[in-house]
Write the structure tokens for this entry.
Amino acid sequence: MREVGGPLRVETWPDPAPGRDGAVVRVEACGICRSDWHAWVGDMGARIRLPHVLGHEFVGVVEAVGPDVRRFKPGDRVIAPFSWGEGGCPQCRAGAEHLCDRRVTPGFDYWGGYARYVATPSADRSLVPLPDGVGFVVGASLGCRFMTAFHALVDRAAVRPGEWVAVHGLGGVGLSAVQILVTLGARVVGVDIRPEPLARAAALGAAATVDARTVDAAEAVREITGGGAQVAVDALGIAATCRAALQSLGKRGRHVQIGLTTRTGGEAADIPLPVDFIVRQEITFHGSLGMPAARYDDLLRLVAAGVLDPGRLVGRRVGLAEAGGVLEAMTRYETDGVTVIDRYEA
């Protein structure tokens, strides 16, 4: 990435070397996420220093390690959580390393997985073993969106079996939420404006779907659920989905905000909220960011056992040179499910 919003270029650079506490990972697969799109269009501001290599959902094989690394060796299969912390701040000590005061994120703060090799710092904290039974494409597909949905629904909203949950925005994180919710025994209403993700949500087990192009989404959810959902998820982060999610809730409902806002397409960074509705209905509003790296072991066990299958969400596998076109398609909301880079040849 050499300019904000400009075409991505495939270039050859010298192979990286590990720092004393770091590792070099040979990338075998990397998801293309809407968070990458946010960085590409400039929503991350000065955090992205050009030229830059995106990609925070990567998995691969350890190629080399520094002398201070203790947990990993060359040949180990690994996944790189984007939400690891340095371990010393109050958040890390409280078990919330994904909210680290000095968080360093692959693909944003250092070069990421849109490359064959990644030098990751603090390898003992920034890498997690990838079980042998979890393939590279599956591992990349859970690297951000799936684990983000898992933390939001299991840890933040504490969804219970039988509850109605409305998921607004059925991109990668929204469809991940649908699969996880169905596994939890929740009754899911999927909301979107495109037929393909609505059909995919139904195939994943959603009890109902709503086409927000043709009806008032909040009103439709309230009718389907008999008065409003217990939990609503905004998985996109635009004003329409955020407000519709909130207003689809019943009394004492829980709203979970996963989607980040954008400054493009006429959207504002701050979304006006229906405050009186929130007060009168006693709505609880949860923000949710990523997932603590320590939770990866629990999630990976469920994936390895076949209880959860993020691979079902992969709609397209592409070569490295196609990554820029996928980001452009995200601007037009034309991607379906999760897209993963799994070919790095020149």
The first strand starts at residue 23 and ends at 32. The domain at 158-287 is CATH 3.40.50.720 (Rossmann fold). Residues 151 and 291 are 5 Å apart (CA to CA).
